[in-house]
User: Which sequence fits this backbone?
């Protein structure tokens, strides 16, 4: 199937979803299930006051900060564990514990210990994501080619050049996998963190709308934010992955 | 004076997963003269690759010493070592040019040297290509270029022309001789092909048995004409095959 045909199919599928939604809204005829026009109106209203773009920008800032921290720290831990059997035996169980700790517990503990601050919020999201990244990167690091390692050693590549040219390129697929699942996880947790302890951002706005039972605003924020995240995936992550993979046949 | 003095007291692979422990070398000595082209000949599994890895410093789990003497008197200085592996071991995510420039310090000067090297092996027009698009013979040429670009004092080669057709292998042997004429190096070359050994070597060491010992140590001082004459080579090869039993 050509790219254009696939795009058309996706558009049709989404249009059908909107139609189903419209029919359901007409059927229920309640303010608790507003139809697409009502949600669009709420979206326009929130955009005109500047609340929607501002809050989305604030939330995206938090997503970016915690995502970058989680990727950097998680990759470092994962690579270390994947390359050293001893380290993995020592600290592998810690990763499993962290992996199974509920996100909510981490968020509450961060707020209790570090106060209701921006740093606590970002730390909480990052900690939730770090073990996922570490587990994926550990797999990648354990599968690194010994042959290329030996080549780098014989030709006496300095540590930094070996990392850049030999090690990291082998980890690109694992990096891409954890970035993709990471972005999805991060922005969901950021909303919870905002709901519990921040006074701005999409999560905070959702809570306000929840208290007013303003379902149209809730859906307006949700849809706008989903669209932005999807744009990042298509506009940023996918081109980067294509670039990193251009050597493949 | 020898460029490389190998003295291995003991090298063994411990028993692992059902395979019994194996003694590879015991009280093994080999001195290689500066500028020599030494071919290690023997059946597979004897420890020829292990020996190269020990000389390269990749395998340190043995008892014994490997000493280098660059000829400058300061014997402690490790020589520049290049290693052409059995597989080309190129970085598939870097272009041919980047692969050749890899062992050099980054910079414009290195790119120029790498490109000149590629020209010498006849692959300049493939500089921007990625290695997986190249044939095996071309990849081997790139690996040769990467080995020679650092102007090695010691060149280790582990069956670098295996699994090529005879014409391709012969062309690569020619290329190797040409490169060595321009940049003399002490070569340690592993193969199980006695024809290849006779064609390239200035000295052939035949390994046998477990632990491996030197069964024959033959100096070959042939002129270019003698090497070019197929009859003479065939005669030597047969003698060698007979000697190696």
Assistant:
């Amino acid at each position: 199937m050509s790219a254009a045909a696939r795009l058309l199919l996706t558009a049709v599928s989404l249009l059908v979803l909107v139609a189903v939604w419209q029919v359901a809204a007409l059927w229920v005829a309640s303010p608790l299930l507003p139809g697409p026009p009502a949600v669009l109106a709420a979206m326009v209203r929130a955009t005109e006051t500047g609340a929607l773009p501002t809050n989305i920008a604030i939330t995206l800032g938090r997503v970016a900060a915690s995502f970058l921290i989680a990727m950097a720290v998680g990759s470092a831990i994962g690579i270390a564990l994947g390359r050293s059997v001893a380290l993995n035996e020592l600290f592998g169980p810690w990763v499993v514990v962290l992996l199974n700790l509920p996100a909510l517990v981490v968020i509450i503990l961060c707020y209790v210990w570090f106060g209701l601050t921006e740093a606590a919020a970002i730390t909480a999201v990052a900690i939730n994501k770090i073990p996922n990244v570490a587990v994926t990167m550990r797999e990648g690091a354990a599968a690194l080619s010994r042959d290329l390692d030996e080549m780098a050693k014989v030709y006496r590549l300095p540590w930094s050049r070996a990392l850049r040219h030999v090690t990291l390129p082998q980890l690109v697929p694992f990096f891409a996998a954890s970035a993709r699942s990471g972005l999805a996880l991060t922005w969901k947790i950021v909303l919870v963190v905002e709901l519990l302890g921040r006074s701005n951002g999409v999560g905070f706005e959702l809570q306000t709308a929840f208290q007013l039972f303003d379902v149209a605003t809730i859906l307006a924020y949700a849809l706008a934010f989903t669209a932005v995240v999807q744009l990042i995936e298509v506009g940023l992550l996918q081109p980067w992955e294509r670039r990193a993979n251009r050597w493949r046949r | 004076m020898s460029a490389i003095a190998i003295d291995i007291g003991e090298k063994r692979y411990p028993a692992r997963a059902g395979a019994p422990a194996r003694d590879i070398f015991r009280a093994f000595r080999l001195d290689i003269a500066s500028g020599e082209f030494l071919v290690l000949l023997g059946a597979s599994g004897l420890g020829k690759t292990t020996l190269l890895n020990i000389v390269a410093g990749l395998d340190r789990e043995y008892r014994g010493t490997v000493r280098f003497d660059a000829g400058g008197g300061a014997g402690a200085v490790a020589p520049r070592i290049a290693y052409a592996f059995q597989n080309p071991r190129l970085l598939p995510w870097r272009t041919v040019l980047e692969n050749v420039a890899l062992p050099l310090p980054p910079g414009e000067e290195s790119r120029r040297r790498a490109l000149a090297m590629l020209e010498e092996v006849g692959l300049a027009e493939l500089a921007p290509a990625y290695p997986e698009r190249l044939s095996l013979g071309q990849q081997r040429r790139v690996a040769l270029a990467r080995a020679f670009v650092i102007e090695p004092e010691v060149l280790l080669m582990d069956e670098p022309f295996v699994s090529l057709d005879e014409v391709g292998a012969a062309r690569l042997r020619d290329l190797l001789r040409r490169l060595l004429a321009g940049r003399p190096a002490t070569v340690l070359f592993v193969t199980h092909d006695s024809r290849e050994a006779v064609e390239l070597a200035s000295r052939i060491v035949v390994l046998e048995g477990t632990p491996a010992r030197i069964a024959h140590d033959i100096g070959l001082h042939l002129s270019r004409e003698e090497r070019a004459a197929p009859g003479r080579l065939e005669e030597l090869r047969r003698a060698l095959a007979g000697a190696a039993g």
The interface with chain A takes residues 53, 56-58, 81-83, 85, 87, 89, 91-94, 98, 102-103, 106, 130, 132-133, 146, 150 of chain B (CB under 8 Å). The first strand of chain B starts at residue 2 and ends at 13. Chain B has eight helices and nine strands.
